[in-house]
């Protein structure tokens, strides 16, 4: 049977070249005290310092600059209330094209403001998945804009893979990379990049136990819904997509589940010891190590800090989880 | 009249060489959105990423490794409840010597734990300046330990000056450096280093208006007491010392005062925009720029982020100031 088409390491390399003029090459930080706690040698890829404060700008920029001039002239559209919407708006402004963002009417004001500050044009809809999709469809019909899905898109997956590419350029001797999984865009890109660059490297995903759709999808082979989405790791509430599921199912070495209080504890350790701000979703991989659910003693471990966009006014409640 | 002896740029260079094997060379961060807010080009020296989480390890390490073997064998003592006590304990552990720390009996548990984790030996005293001094004197009499004052010490001043030395190596074209002032160790070291390395550079100090002793000391020429110390910038509550006052009075270009809510607002901007954790004292220089009290439009500005040791459980109250 023919393999379904999917991004390759060449697509990731092309993405890296395409986005280089716009995004940061983010630094790798280390922390001796966290190494001691985990008895491992950890290298943290700090996309919390990335443009827009998150890795999402990688995929969004790759997607926007992959369009033909004719496509670009008609604009792009997405339905996302998170980091992807702001990232797509910024990437669109770099190319000078219109970005349409469909958001539920109850989206936080701070996220609306981020989109608008980059020039994105918001259309509100009812807070249901069906309403989001139909509103986006109407915009596409009216404008001819190209849909850029937050994660279930090969251009997005290749773009997110550039983080692992950079990490392995800076730290070629890693034994394992640990990455959070939500919709699977970052994880898919990481798998494609890491497994091609370094056969034998392991890639382990970590997921909040409350939204364990990826864990269940590995077993069932289909996209499993999440019955609850009340995790402090608010970037990981989505389920896998049609394009990310097969990549992850074939290539991921393991998926580990962590509890809410373990995520909060890991977030506190990062703030206190590393003196950097990450969002709760980015604390999920370290939570697996610190809780003992994932034992990587003696190994060289890459950990992806995906973003730093946390509402400071909610931080006390998050840390008290 | 002969000049009183004081550290020179040669002492700062010697300190840099002495401490290099032990401390981090901390990075310089930039932030385009804060540049836009201040209409200046800002370079932030990130000593929040320094060992012990603060620049204090620079002076402490220089002092400890400046001792003769005979002196070192008798240990060192300090009376400080802040970053200096932990830093001296760590520096002492590197040299393998005894560190005695005199702390008021009501010192926060977290600060006691930091000192102990590095092997420092705590002696508690009544929470008065007189009790601290007499308790330290007793330890010196009993052990022959060398007193290492938190800031009023030439070895400490030269050590703290290494931050400005590194900053000007990385950013030689700075027009001005803005630094917080508490006891004046960091400011004195910065003045000595910067004015020697780059004649014509300006060095501006910023102080919380509630503890404006340095501002008043510039006018009176003597050490002025602070009548209140209730500032969120808890690292800047101390007054200038006999050794720091004359250096600052001769060399500083200006001292600017900022209000508590301006410090809190600057701290929030750093957390939200730069995604790094700094302590409130380190937000004081930026507060002067963001509030408009210090206008450095169009200039290349170095700002010293001195430390990142903030109690996360107190952060909401601090940010709400």
Question: How does this structure look, described?
Answer:
Two copies of one chain form a homodimer. The first copy, chain A, is of the alpha/beta class. Chain A folds into two domains: 9-54 and 157-319, Rossmann fold; 57-147, Rossmann fold (3-Layer(aba) Sandwich). Helix content of chain A is 45%, strand content 15%. Chain A has 14 helices and ten strands. Chain A has helices at 9-19, 32-38, 56-66, 69-73, 83-95, 109-117, 129-143, 154-170, 185-197, 213-220, 244-251, 260-274, 284-290, 315-319; strands spanning 28-29, 41-46, 76-79, 99-104, 121-125, 146-147, 176-180, 202-208, 254-258, 300-305. In chain A, the strands form two sheets. A six-stranded mixed β-sheet of chain A has the order 1-2-10-7-8-9, with helices on both faces. Chain A has a four-stranded parallel β-sheet with strand order 5-4-3-6, sandwiched between helices. In chain A, helix 3 (56-66) runs parallel beside helix 5 (83-95) and helix 9 (185-197) crosses helix 11. The longest helix of chain A has 17 residues, at 154-170. The radius of gyration of chain A is 18 Å and the shape is globular. The interface between A and B is medium-sized, with 17 and 17 residues.
């Amino acid at each position: 049977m023919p393999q379904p088409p999917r991004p390759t390491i060449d697509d990731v390399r092309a993405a890296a070249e395409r986005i280089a003029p716009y995004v940061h090459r983010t630094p790798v930080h280390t922390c001796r005290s966290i190494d001691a706690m985990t008895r491992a040698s950890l290298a943290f890829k700090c996309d919390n310092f990335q443009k827009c404060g998150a890795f999402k700008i990688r995929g969004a920029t790759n997607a926007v600059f992959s369009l033909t001039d004719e496509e670009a002239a008609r604009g792009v559209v997405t339905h996302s209330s998170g980091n992807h919407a702001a990232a797509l708006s910024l990437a669109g402004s770099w190319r000078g094209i219109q970005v349409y963002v469909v958001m539920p009417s109850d989206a936080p004001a701070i996220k609306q403001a981020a989109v608008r500050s980059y020039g994105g044009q918001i259309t509100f809809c009812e807070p249901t998945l069906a309403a989001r999709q139909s509103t986006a469809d109407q915009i596409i019909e009216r404008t001819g804009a190209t849909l850029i899905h937050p994660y279930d898109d090969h251009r997005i997956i290749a773009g997110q893979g550039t983080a692992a590419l950079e990490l392995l350029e800076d730290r070629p001797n890693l034994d394992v990379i640990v990455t959070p999984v939500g919709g699977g865009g970052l994880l898919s890109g990481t798998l494609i990049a890491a497994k091609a660059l370094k056969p034998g490297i392991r890639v382990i995903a970590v997921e909040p136990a409350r939204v364990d759709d990826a864990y269940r999808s590995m077993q069932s082979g289909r996209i499993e819904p999440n019955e609850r989405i009340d995790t402090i790791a608010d970037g990981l509430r989505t389920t896998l997509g049609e394009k990310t599921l097969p990549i992850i199912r074939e290539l991921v070495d393991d998926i580990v589940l962590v509890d809410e209080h373990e995520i909060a504890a890991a977030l506190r350790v990062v703030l206190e010891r590393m003196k950097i701000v990450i969002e709760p979703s980015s604390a999920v991989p370290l939570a697996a190590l610190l809780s003992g659910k994932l034992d990587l003693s003696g190994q060289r471990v890459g950990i992806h800090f995906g973003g730093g966009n946390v509402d400071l006014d909610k931080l006390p409640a998050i840390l008290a989880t």
